[in-house]
Each structure stands twice: as C-alpha cells, then as structure tokens.
Design goal:
With 268 residues, the protein is an alpha/beta fold. The protein has eight helices and nine strands. It has a seven-stranded mixed sheet, sandwiched between helices. A two-stranded antiparallel sheet has the order 1-2. Strand 7 and strand 8 form a beta hairpin. The protein is globular and about 50 Å long.
C-alpha cells in the first residue's frame, strides 16, 4: 500500500470540508455497529468485531470543486479492501493503489470511468474515441463519488459472489429506522445524477432499500431496452436523475450494456 495521506489528494477547501463531514458521519456510523455482535469470517472460522469490517467510501478529488454535474455511483458491497490500510478508506485505497494497478483490465472500474466520461461530455463522442481509464486517471478525470450500500468488506475467498447475508447484516446493524446513515451520506454528497448497480433485482432486504430509497419518491421516466431505467428521484427537495443499470462487474459489453444505456437515457 502506498502513502494514503489524504492531504496529498484533497487540496481544494470544499473537498476538504466535505471529507471532514463524511468522516464524522462514518465515525458515528461505526459507533452504532460497535454495539453489534462479532461476525464470523468463513475462511478461517473465526469471529471478528463488526467495526473491523467497516470500510469508508465517499468521493474522489474534484467532485465538489469541479465545474460539472456531481455523479454518484452506488454499489452493493465493498470487496477485498479490509487490508487496504489503517484508514479503512475505499477512496484512499483507490487513489493510492487500485487506480494504479491495471484499471483498464478491471471491468468494475472500467465501466464506471466510461459512464462518467460519457456524462461529462454529454455523450458527444463515439465510444471508440473514449480514453482508457488509465489515461483518465493520469488526467485526474475522476471527480465522481462512490458509495456502497454495505460498508462491510466481503473479503472471503469467494468474494466474487455478493454476500447478501453480510450486506443485510450491515443494514440491520446500522439500525436505519433510528438514524438513516445511508440517506445522510447521500445528503452530504448532494449528487445531481445517481447511477445504481442493479440494487433492486437482488437479495438485499427490500425493507432497507425502501428506507433509503422510498418507492413513493420515484417517478419512472423511461427505460433503455432491458439494461437500464431512468427515474426522477425526489430527495430532500431536489430532483435527482437516477439510473439503475447492470452491476458494473456483470458480464456484457462495456459499450452496449453500460455506456450506451446511460448516455441514451440522459442525453437522447
């Protein structure tokens, strides 16, 4: 793991201020789960404190300080990041390590970068002209936000498959009925556009999805084939464009199943 001193990455005052707000929220969130039972790690059959599974996320440099729409990607769970450093911070882990280790080859990252570039440029460029993620990273074109519904890291040997028991345990442990930390994180991130990674057609307990994304706050606008759906999402007095699409690591074409559905829905 390389140096993860966030002052090396976050230099704009607004980015720094929002990072502090998020870190305060995460500390309070972890305080909530500290009262919950230990979690069995299947690979070694041992129990570990719930808080040791907790991985922070948030936004990358330029999200608040850039002159563009704020795009938030929302996934299901973080994977293989419990050992990313003492910070237990997905964002610093990516900036210090993951973005430098063959991002073009990892479908999860690659699709997020392609979608983000398409939104930045309003779909004006043919897919074949889009730069590869490593070029975007070199040019620091990563001013988007990323959060997972579950902050518990799935580090099991078979982590390629989502651990819905672990995801639902995190949402149960968070006690969202008492304090809805998920919505508070979204409120701090204040996105203009949200791209969700197929959250609803999964085994995530609908009770928790309804608490965070009440169905009454959605108006369906249109769908693109069977690959993505665009909604108007009413959130804290603001209308956010929300697209639920395939999971970013699902099998399929980067262009046909990810890039094109999003830019067609948003920009026609």
């Amino acid at each position: 793991m390389e140096n993860t001193d966030e002052s090396l990455f976050f230099t704009h005052p607004e980015d720094i201020s929002k990072r502090k707000k998020l870190n305060t929220l995460f500390e309070q969130w972890m305080e909530q789960i500290r009262s919950c039972g230990d979690i069995l790690f299947p690979d070694d059959g041992k129990y570990y404190p719930a808080e040791s599974y907790f991985i922070k996320d948030g936004f990358y440099p330029g999200y608040f300080s850039g002159n563009h729409s704020k795009v938030l990607f929302i996934g299901r769970e973080t994977r293989d990041t419990a050992s990313c450093g003492l910070e237990k911070d997905r964002i610093l882990c990516d900036l210090g390590c993951s973005f430098k280790n063959a991002p073009n080859a990892v479908s999860f990252f690659r699709r997020i970068f392609y979608i983000y570039y398409g939104i930045l440029t309003e779909g004006k460029y043919p897919f074949c002209d889009i730069p590869y993620p490593d070029k975007m990273i070199e040019d620091k074109l990563y001013g988007f936000a990323f959060m997972n519904i579950s902050k518990y890291s799935n580090d099991a040997e078979n982590s390629a498959a989502a651990d819905y028991d672990l995801i639902n345990k995190f949402l149960l442990d968070s006690n969202l009925e008492k304090r809805n930390f998920v919505r508070e994180e979204i409120e701090i991130l204040d996105p203009d556009i949200i791209i969700t990674a197929n959250l609803w057609e999964t085994h995530i307990n609908r009770k928790y999805l309804e608490l965070s994304f009440p169905s009454g706050d959605f108006t369906k606008i249109k769908a693109y084939k069977n690959q993505a759906v665009l909604y108007d999402f009413q959130f804290n007095g603001k209308v956010i464009k929300l697209i639920d699409t395939c999971h970013f690591s699902a099998r399929g074409s980067d262009e046909e199943d990810f890039y094109k559905p999003v830019v067609k829905l948003l920009f026609g």
